[in-house]
Structure formats: structure tokens, C-alpha cells
């Protein structure tokens, strides 16, 4: 049976729904409603004469026939995506790698290491975009992103990059620092906060300290800005281990008493599950994983 052009929208909707195991998530990806995705899938099932999904109260799951078609569709789209990427980028752009990451991680962890990447792979050309919003992998978007989270995102392949941990820091010149001898004493200092999902309340709970109130005087949306504020004497900051190392090494910040609390969310390299990384992007990802596993932060 020849594959006619009017099959393609239904196949695209099916492939996305199969990958997400969810019509609503597929609709978000394709800019359709969940009912439109369902209509495409039912149209495909009618033409093929087989059920591709089992529908139940909790959602949908693939039948054996659906799994067979999903595997073939995924392979075909991956191959097409690779060819289109080459045609779109052109020969001169094959070594250009586009990366999205957090400003805090780029500023104090990634950028200081980039001379090592250039030395190992001088042909690589990077475009680094920093943002707090979740990355959209649209046409012309990044090859991959570095995300801070649980490691589970629908439709994305995630490689664990590195764990993180939290502990308090302050400028050595912060007034009152000479009286800080314990985690309880940290609560007497003015506190600097960021918008991280683990904050001062979590750290004091882990330290078994229960202050009547927390003096969180200054709040910054970015973790690096919070560390900079602490370095200028605004107060004590709750630092993430991976982005504070250079501040400690330079002496701009010092560690305060109290526990090191493992972070509930960590760093991951992510990219669309249906897409193979281009060779240049895979080279950078491999380098990142080696850096995270073997090399301390440079000064």
C-alpha cells in the first residue's frame, strides 16, 4: 500500500501521542487540541483496521500493533530529522552546537571550563543561551539543554550530569560573622534568598534549628546574583555547591557552620527523545559528562 500525503498528519499525531503516552501532551507539542490528536489517531486506526491504543480511565497505552507502528514512525522521523538538520544547517554549520542552560551554571561552572573544550575540540563552535524558562526544542532551537530538576521530563531524554548540595555562605566582612558558631547562629544574620525550590526553611529544618522568624531581607531571581549580593555583604546566602566553589576559593565568600544538605533537584543534559544528537553536539555532551565527573571547578 502506497503512503499517501494525507496520511502524514495522522502519523505525526500518532507518533507524538505514542511518545508521550498522552493525547494532551501530544497536542501541546503539535499546537493542537487533545481532541484533534484523538481524531487523527482514530482516523489512522480506521484506515489500518487495528487498534493502536488501549483507552482507559487513567489515559492511554499502546497495543502491540501500536508499539510496532510507533517504533517504525520514531525511526523514520529520527532519520528525517537528521537529514533536515543537515540541509537546514548547511555544511559550514555542522560544527555549530547550540546549548541552553541556566545563567548561574553558565557563569560559574560552564564558561570557566570552555578553554578545555576548545583545546580538546578546536572545530566546535558554541552558541550558549541562558534562560530560566523551560527550553522549547523548536526548529532552529538548541541541540540540547542543561536543566535543573528531577530528571524526568515527558518527551525528553535526560542524562544525569551532576548532583548538588546546599550550605550557607557569607562575606568574611559581614557584620556579626565573628559571633556565628553554630547553625542556630546563622539564623541571627540577615539572609539573602533566591527563587530556588529549596530554601532557608529547608536548610534550617535539616539543621534541626527552628527560628521564630527568618530575616530574608533580599531576594534575587538568579542564584549567581544572590551569591554576588552575599559577597558584597548584603547577608548570608544559601549556596549551591556547584556554583559557589570559585567564590570560596577566591575568599570572597566563606562557609558558615551547619550541615551540607543534598539537593532534591540536580543537573541533567536533555534533548528530544525522538531525536539523535548530531555528532558535534554528542561530542560536547560527552565532554560535559567527563567534566562533571572528573574535574573540580577551576579558579
UniProtKB/TrEMBL annotation:
Signal peptide: none
Domain spans labelled HTH lysR-type: 8-63
Keywords from the named record: DNA-binding, Transcription, Transcription regulation
Superkingdom of origin: Bacteria
Positions of transmembrane segments: none
Entry keyword annotation includes Heme: no
InterPro entries in the record: LysR-type_TF_proteobact-type, LysR_HTH_N, LysR_subst-bd, WH-like_DNA-bd_sf, WH_DNA-bd_sf
Family: Belongs to the LysR transcriptional regulatory family.
Protein name (record): LysR substrate-binding domain-containing protein
Organism name: Novilysobacter erysipheiresistens
Amino acid at each position: 500500500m502506497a503512503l499517501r500525503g494525507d496520511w502524514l498528519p495522522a502519523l505525526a499525531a500518532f507518533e507524538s501521542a505514542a511518545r508521550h503516552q498522552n493525547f494532551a501532551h501530544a497536542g501541546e507539542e503539535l499546537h493542537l487540541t487533545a481532541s484533534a490528536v484523538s481524531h487523527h489517531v482514530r482516523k489512522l486506526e480506521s484506515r489500518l483496521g487495528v487498534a493502536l491504543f488501549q483507552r482507559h480511565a487513567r489515559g492511554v497505552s499502546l497495543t502491540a500493533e501500536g508499539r510496532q507502528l510507533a517504533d517504525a514512525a520514531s525511526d523514520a522521523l529520527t532519520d528525517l530529522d537528521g537529514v533536515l538538520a543537515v540541509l537546514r544547517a548547511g555544511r559550514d554549520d555542522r560544527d555549530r552546537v547550540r546549548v541552553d542552560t541556566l545563567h548561574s551554571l553558565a557563569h560559574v561552572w560552564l564558561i570557566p571550563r570552555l578553554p578545555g573544550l576548545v583545546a580538546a575540540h578546536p572545530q566546535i563552535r558554541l552558541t550558549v543561551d541562558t534562560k530560566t524558562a523551560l527550553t522549547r526544542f523548536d526548529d532552529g532551537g538548541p541541540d540540547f539543554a542543561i536543566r535543573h530538576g528531577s530528571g524526568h521530563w515527558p518527551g525528553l531524554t535526560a542524562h544525569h550530569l551532576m548532583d548538588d548540595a546546599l550550605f550557607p555562605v557569607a562575606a568574611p566582612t559581614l557584620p556579626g560573622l565573628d559571633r556565628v558558631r553554630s547553625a542556630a547562629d546563622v539564623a541571627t544574620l540577615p539572609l539573602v534568598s533566591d527563587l530556588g525550590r529549596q530554601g532557608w526553611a529547608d536548610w534550617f529544618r535539616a539543621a534541626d534549628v527552628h527560628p521564630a522568624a527568618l530575616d530574608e531581607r533580599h531576594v534575587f531571581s538568579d542564584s549567581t546574583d544572590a551569591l554576588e549580593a552575599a559577597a558584597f555583604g548584603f547577608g548570608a546566602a544559601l549556596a549551591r555547591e556547584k556554583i559557589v566553589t570559585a567564590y570560596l576559593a577566591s575568599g570572597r565568600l566563606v562557609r558558615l557552620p551547619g550541615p551540607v544538605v543534598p539537593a532534591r533537584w540536580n543537573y541533567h543534559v536533555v534533548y528530544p527523545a525522538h531525536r539523535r544528537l548530531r555528532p558535534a553536539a554528542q561530542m560536547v555532551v560527552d565532554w560535559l559528562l567527563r567534566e562533571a565527573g572528573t574535574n573540580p571547578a577551576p579558579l
